[in-house]
Design a protein that fits this description.
7 strands; about 20% strand; 6 helices; seven-stranded mixed beta sheet; alpha/beta; Rossmann fold; about 210 residues
């Protein structure tokens, strides 16, 4: 599915979403020679103590191999995405025009976080003619039926763990611990008899 030299766009609502949902696959795709672009819609700094999040977001994604010029951090107000659906759709249209992605990874719509739901739903319109995949955020996705299983290496998983460790503000959260991340990858791997896997729901594949 992933042709070498493809342009692949990852979209997340907040810092750490992309890494948490698809960090291993992102690492693999970069290592395979694809161009990866990451767009985070909210810098999420309006809460006290989170001023360093944009800096940590960049450091995290660079740890996975993303070029700094392909790291985009916007300023949509966290927890208020539902009030700005059209602006978010317009932003997605700009991303599509600027990068012409071959594949887009985005949140799953069955998620406890309203911002995640909005991002997933609004991506459907601008990217209707682009292959679209949903990733899982282990702490908030409530329904997930994967169709695509991507085997990742131990190095990919290690880079994912290292990337998420860049978020000092989130230290101690159990869903970011190495054992939790490895457990999720191991469970997904059982299904296809591989050691480490990240799984995705397929919204559509454009051939």
């Amino acid at each position: 599915m992933f042709q070498k030299d493809s342009k692949i766009l990852f979209i997340g609502a907040h810092p750490d979403d992309i890494e948490l949902g698809a960090g291993g696959t992102l690492s693999k795709l970069v290592c395979d020679g694809n161009e990866v672009i990451c767009a985070t819609l909210s810098h999420n700094i309006r809460t006290n103590g989170k001023e360093k999040l944009p800096e940590q977001n960049k450091k995290s994604l660079k740890t996975l191999g993303v070029k700094e010029k392909n790291i985009l951090i916007e300023n949509f107000n966290s927890r208020h995405f539902h009030e700005h659906r059209q602006e978010i759709t317009d932003y997605f249209c700009k991303l599509k025009d600027a990068y012409s992605p071959d594949v887009v990874f985005v949140h799953n719509p069955h998620d406890l976080h309203r911002d995640h739901k909005v991002v997933s739903e609004e991506a459907m319109r601008p990217f209707r003619d682009v292959s679209l995949l949903n990733y899982e955020v282990n702490r908030s996705t409530i329904k997930f039926e994967p169709h695509l299983f991507v085997e990742i290496s131990k190095d990919d998983l290690d880079r994912k763990v290292k990337a998420l460790n860049c978020y000092d503000i989130y230290k101690g959260r159990n869903y970011l611990e190495a054992k939790s991340l490895e457990a999720t990858s191991s469970v997904r791997g059982i299904i296809i008899e591989k050691p480490l896997v990240e799984a995705f729901e397929v919204v559509k594949i454009i051939g």
